[in-house]
């Protein structure tokens, strides 16, 4: 198991960059005081990893909160993603510049291909490789890539992805994909770790919450980390942002990690990467 210490702890990517294993997702947070407040609350609570995307339409607010913070820029791991309609070599370079301008930052810590658009993601990746070599991004990766997408990408590129951000929760474990990523030094990361709120309907997790004197959310997020999976729970509420990060004073037993694994149903709350309407 990778070492989990505190909210500022990190996992090392294959290029040597340390990526904080716990962060804030800002999907659906409005590009006004809502996202600015959420990012500021998260940074105040010790978060050092903020995940946005061009399609979230809130990069300006994220950038504003980062600039207002007393935390030095170099200590905040900022992630964005290139959207499907911007994929392709030249259009990705342009989309990256536009994201950076909206964020008003000089560089990104991680830039991801948001979805594997057939016929385009190889060229998109070549653009990410160029930006990486120019040191405009500290790490590059993908999101929603299944094993066959990763194999195709690695067979047609110079640099293998450092990260694969996937839907990941007790009903969608995809252990074979996690194993493949681990074998290839591709860091696995979770989006929608709370199943878009549906984990709270799983009464089966209530017993574990009682056993560890924690919330269901804290149990699931701790399970993410103990699986070696980076996690970025989304919230715009201050108390939830603080509560989600209260994960570092307990450890799930191996049996309980395996028990949560056993809840897997290969059930998605989001789109299927193999059948997504790009």
Automatic annotation (TrEMBL):
Which keywords, in A-to-Z order, does the entry hold? NADP, Oxidoreductase
Q: Metal-binding among the record's keywords?
A: no
Q: Where is the NADP-dependent oxidoreductase domain?
A: 29-264
Family matches, as SUPFAM superfamilies? NAD(P)-linked oxidoreductase
Q: Which family does the record assign? A: Belongs to the aldo/keto reductase family.
| This protein's name | Aldo/keto reductase
